[in-house]
Amino acid sequence: MAAAPSIDRVVTAGTYTVDGDTRDVENNVWLLGDDEVVLVIDAAHDAAAIQRACAGRRVGEIACTHGHRDHIGVAPQLSEAVGAAVLLHPADRPLWDMTHEETPPDGDLVEGEVLRVAHLEVRVLGTPGHSPGSVCLYVPALEAVFTGDTLFAGGPRDTGRSLAVIPTLIRSIHDKLASLPPQTRVLPGHGDETTIGKEAPNLDEFRARGQP
Q1: What is the pTM of this model?
Q2: Residues near 99 by Cβ (< 8 Å), separated by ≥ 6?
Q3: Domains of the chain
């Protein structure tokens, strides 16, 4: 019998260039699953490290929260190594093509779709703003949401400006995330985790700031 589902974090590091600005960055790569199968959320920087963290488990799919290079940089390489499909919202295909023009993603992540791994439902929430096709992945059974670069501890912030629309980002947080149960863990693409209960009361402050 498979172990109870769990969430593991792998931190990978690299450089990221956006709008002509190159910076060092650490990314959270999230593994959702049990001792038999995992869903990889964002394939950042180091395919070998991600594969090692999977510890021999089958990778069901590789889900990309959005198309910025630091979140998709090794997705095709990891896909080839483990035999898993790469999923991305189609609105972020132009961003994907900046990094992987010759290797398209294998499938789409769209609002309302439900992925399944280790007997868990993973609901796709369309949260555009940081990028046109940003999504968050909500797992009700584990009271967790994987937010990519949509929401961090302390609110949204500037991790990549290409095609970002800040009012749309704030609306996405309001409409799709703030209404989740307050105890829901927020597992972002960078930095420490937080909860919806900690971040939702600050939505007016995020809005007033006007930009991350």
Answers
A1: 0.96
A2: 67, 69, 72, 73
A3: 6-209 (3.60.15.10)
